[in-house]
Write a structure and sequence with these properties.
single chain, 331 residues, two-stranded antiparallel sheet, 2 domains
């Protein structure tokens, strides 16, 4: 999370293509593409770019700065939730999104998309809430005019610090943090201190809130043995979104397969322009076929005076199935 003035800093041009190239390179080498990570990167980038057709929908950064004083005084939930997805300039956005790509791809591939999405949905309010509590705590117990309580900040870095804690929680390896080798499980704390030393304009309590959110998430996950309700919500949402597609599929809009849609026996009062029944084995075939999918009988032989039923009526059902497997490769 970056601190700033009421209005965004200087806007550079030219770093977004770097982000796009890096994202394409990362995803091209993966056999399974993590959709939630891609969606998060796209959402943050779209909010920063503010395309014309979304200009009336996306709030301006002045409306969503994370300011503890304003959030508490006016109960401004818009600032509380949306400030994490805004960035001051391109360098701020690109740095955070490159970090999100690296952490998100690893976590989503190891956890699965539903669990990863539920984790992010939990970490955003947790990191924002802990940051708010820290700012309020400093005001109540130390200094009412604490700058942390009235500072303005935006950015996804609080969530990224939480993800870093979760990613390295069980790691026994060492990693480099800005040139220093540290134990991986303490990398987030080392990065917190080093970033604050070299870039004092960033929000210290915003990053600290992210680290604490990651620790709280790990503690709650370890102490809770039941199923994660957020995962159920995410899966229910995915199911609800896919209902129209399932309905259209079931109604036949997308079913254009040539093989495997017939049935043996049953009713014969169906649209003969789409389906024709083989008089030999009573299998319902798609109208575009001229040969029975089940037994291989010619469609137009059924209407001739010579009926082939007598020739195959004694063929066992298993034999018919075998013929079909040989003819269509197991369909």
């Amino acid at each position: 999370m970056d601190r700033g003035r009421r209005r965004g800093g200087s806007v550079s041009r030219g770093m977004l293509p770097l982000l796009a190239l890096h994202a394409v390179a990362e995803y091209s080498r993966l056999d399974r593409k993590p959709p939630v990570t891609a969606g998060l990167v796209a959402a943050n980038t779209i909010i920063y770019l503010r395309p014309n057709f979304l200009d009336q929908i996306i709030p301006y950064i002045d409306e969503v700065w994370f300011n503890p004083h304003i959030i508490v005084k006016y109960k401004d939930l818009k600032r509380f939730f949306l400030s994490a997805f805004y960035h001051i300039n391109e360098s701020h956005l690109v740095y955070n999104m490159l970090s999100l790509l690296w952490k998100g791809i690893q976590l989503e591939r190891s956890m699965g998309s539903a669990k990863f999405a539920s984790m992010v949905a939990a970490l955003v309010p947790m990191s924002q809430g802990i940051t708010l509590l820290l700012a309020k705590f400093l005001v109540l117990f130390f200094d009412y005019d604490s700058p942390y309580y009235k500072e303005y900040g935006v950015g996804f870095s609080g969530v990224l610090f939480a993800m870093k804690v979760i990613l390295n929680a069980q790691s026994g390896d060492y990693t480099y943090v800005h040139g220093l080798m540290v134990p991986a499980r303490y990398a987030a704390w080392a990065e917190l201190i080093l970033i604050q030393m070299f870039v004092p304009s960033v929000s210290f309590i915003g990053h600290l809130g992210g680290i604490l959110a990651g620790l709280v998430y790990l503690h709650l996950k370890g102490s809770y043995s039941g199923s994660n309700p957020l995962i159920k919500i995410v899966r229910s949402f995915i199911s609800a979104v896919s209902l129209p597609l399932k309905f259209l599929w079931g109604s036949g809009w997308f079913q254009r397969r040539v093989y495997g849609q017939g049935a043996v026996g049953g009713r014969s009062d169906r649209n003969t322009s789409d389906v024709w029944r083989c008089q030999a084995c009573t299998y319902d075939n798609p109208g575009i076929l001229n040969v029975c999918e089940m037994c291989g009988t010619d469609r137009f032989e059924n209407s001739s005076l010579h009926s082939p039923r007598s020739e195959i009526q004694d063929i066992p059902l298993e034999e018919l199935r075998r013929r079909r497997v040989e003819r269509f490769g197991g369909l």
